[in-house]
Amino acid sequence: MKCILKKVRAGESVNIDEFNLSNIIKEGKFNTVFGTKGGKEALNTAIDEALYFTYQRSPTGPAGKGLIGLANSVPFVTSSFIPFPRFIANALRFTYEYSPIYLVEGTFKSLVKDSNNYEEMSKALIGTAGLYGAMAFRDSENAGEKWYEGRRDDGTTYDMRPFFPAAPFLWAADIINRVKNDDPVIGDTSFWTEGLQALSGTQFRAGFGLYALDKAGQTWLVQKTVQKHYKNWY
């Protein structure tokens, strides 16, 4: 793509077939094209983009690296909680980038760091639009009682959690709408497991993993209740 843009900006004519990977392989020019410095950069970029879109890219942040490192060091223990740690790390990154939280960072990357690339800012804008759409859906007659439920015309409901990346928007939209309507945000300990599964786009394995997460959420709620009463007493 950069080679095409470079030719267009220089006023040169562009034959798109010259950049067709199938034609390059058929004509035996793979090493000639991708053996150069620019060709290697293009190939590495293509591989990185492919890994990004399939949620298999190696995390660059400390949290993602820590998750993958933990999975590699104690695989049997980690797999009890998280069956696909690399996918989850990439899905969480995707959820972050396609959200209003990424607006500042995405705008900086697009307008300051790389003025010719609006992709990062576009991600945040698309995510913001998706969140507003999810909020409208949760306020409509097509929404079920639970954040992940959709309602058919006959009144029956269906589970929308498998529809990633829609699930994170629906979960966040339900929280925002609850706050707007002064409804309780955290109903029970399933809030933690459902939220984490929605944001990561995966379903944790039944058994010890879900049990531990539920217990962690329950412990947090108990601690907050004790702290609240302690302040009232003293």
Protein model, in words:
The chain is mainly α. The chain has 2 domains: 1-53, no CATH class; 55-233, no CATH class. 65% of the residues lie in helices and 3% in strands. It has 12 helices and 2 strands; from the N terminus they run αααααααααββααα. It has helices at 2-9, 21-26, 30-34, 37-53, 62-73, 75-81, 85-97, 103-113, 119-138, 166-180, 190-200, 208-233, and strands at 149-151, 157-159. Strands 1-2 form a two-stranded antiparallel sheet. The longest helix has 26 residues, at 208-233. The chain is globular. The termini are far apart. Residues 205-213 and 216-234 have low confidence and may be disordered.
Give a concise summary.
By secondary structure, this protein is mainly alpha-helical. It is built from 12 helices and 2 strands, in the order H-H-H-H-H-H-H-H-H-E-E-H-H-H.
Give the ordered list of helices and strands: HHHHHHHHHEEHHH
Percent range of helical residues: 55-70%
How much strand content do the residues show? under 5%
Count of individual beta strands:
2
Number of helices: 12
Distance between the termini: 66 Å
Rg, please? 23 Å
By oligomeric state, this entry counts as single chain
Mean pLDDT: 77
Task: Provide the domain count.
Answer: 2
Broad shape = globular
The biggest sheet amounts to: 2 strands, antiparallel
Strand order of the largest sheet: 1-2
Structural class: mainly alpha
- Unreliable stretches covering 5 or more consecutive residues: 205-213, 216-234
